[in-house]
Amino acid sequence: MSPKATATKQDTKAALLQAGMDLMMEKGYTNTGINDVLNTLGIPKGSFYHHFDSKENYAVEIIRYFDAAAVEMLTRTLKNSNQTPLNRIRTFCEEKKAKLASQSCSRGCLVGNLSQEMSDQSEVLRLELSRVMTNWQNIVAECIKEGQKIKEIKGDRTAHQLAELFYSGWSGAVLRAKTLKSIEPIDTFIDLMLNDVLKA
Amino acid sequence: MSPKATATKQDTKAALLQAGMDLMMEKGYTNTGINDVLNTLGIPKGSFYHHFDSKENYAVEIIRYFDAAAVEMLTRTLKNSNQTPLNRIRTFCEEKKAKLASQSCSRGCLVGNLSQEMSDQSEVLRLELSRVMTNWQNIVAECIKEGQKIKEIKGDRTAHQLAELFYSGWSGAVLRAKTLKSIEPIDTFIDLMLNDVLKA
DNA sequence: GACAGAATAGACCGACCGGTCTATTCTAAG
DNA sequence: CTTAGAATAGACCGGTCGGTCTATTCTGTC
Description:
Two copies of one chain form a homodimer.
Chain A: H1 3-10, H2 12-27, H3 34-41, H4 45-51, H5 55-78, H6 85-102, H7 110-118, H8 123-149, H9 159-180, H10 184-197
Helix pairs in contact in A: 2-3, 2-5, 5-6, 5-8, 6-8, 6-10, 7-8, 8-9, 9-10
The structure holds a DNA duplex.
């Protein structure tokens, strides 16, 4: 059996997840059709409904697929003991900023986009997005807590609260960047949040 | 001519704007069909396309309709000289929070929702949303500037920057509230932003 | 009352939506 | 080689989408 052929066959599901993630990131849930995904990959509809029950379920798997990569990136940056906690957060922000800038401030974050669009439309998606959001916040909070311990980050607020403000501010800054097609909201956020709000 | 009958006829356009605003706030642009709007009002399609060129144009007018009410609320609260600038901002936040809580943390803000969904899909809508967003930020910035003058709000950052962080943080907090179906992100935002970030 | 234009009314259009169905091909175990 | 089930393949379905079209009614002017 040719390894290439085998790989091609078995990667169908992964390819569907990747392509769906890209399309939904750019166009949202409602505006992304099953056929859009299928046509970009040259895969027939039968394969899709073999691997996924419904569009909604497909989206849930896409969110998990996206989450896996996001958590990897979060832990890589925010648990990197070669940097101080505050500088880890700075690295995280700069990496995300570079990504956003490289795509002309479009797309943003899949979880943010789907949350805005689908929270009131699908309880299934809302719960999944909730879970992911809370998890991310906890990872940030842990890093902040470390920074508080060494008095690098201000200690008169709980790490949970600071992480929440950080996350809210970041999401909002990305939204503004997308709409204004400018990286400036991100710059302002990074500057104030890191040099002012979080700093001890 | 009966004034009631006349009013009914001439208010068709306003009714379409109002109903479209409500529906798009809850379901987004793509997921709101022309027929959805028409059916909830009992208005035939001919009337719709008499008053509006296209769905996209309709959305632009809805954004303006929404903006008018939003600017009224912003100026009423943020230019109220009976309160100090920081307290005006607090009043603004509390009013918006009450509204959000009263609708179980659903819907959120039309401009935020459409920005997330449509910025990458329609340049026409993106520009309109950009304009509205920038205008709101300027109104907030003016209030902050006043607060800086009387040393109620911290002066080591420009009012423009602080307004931007405020707006980003607020939008993100609303997004989180929608998804987590909890008012807590809003509470945290108000607490930290007003008692910590903005305070002189 | 005649008339023009605004506004209402709703049937209708092709395109596309998510999802179903049957048929075929591939793959691995016996 | 046989065979069961996974996977691929794509025609097809009812419903809905944004938008068009023709017809009728309402409204203000002469």
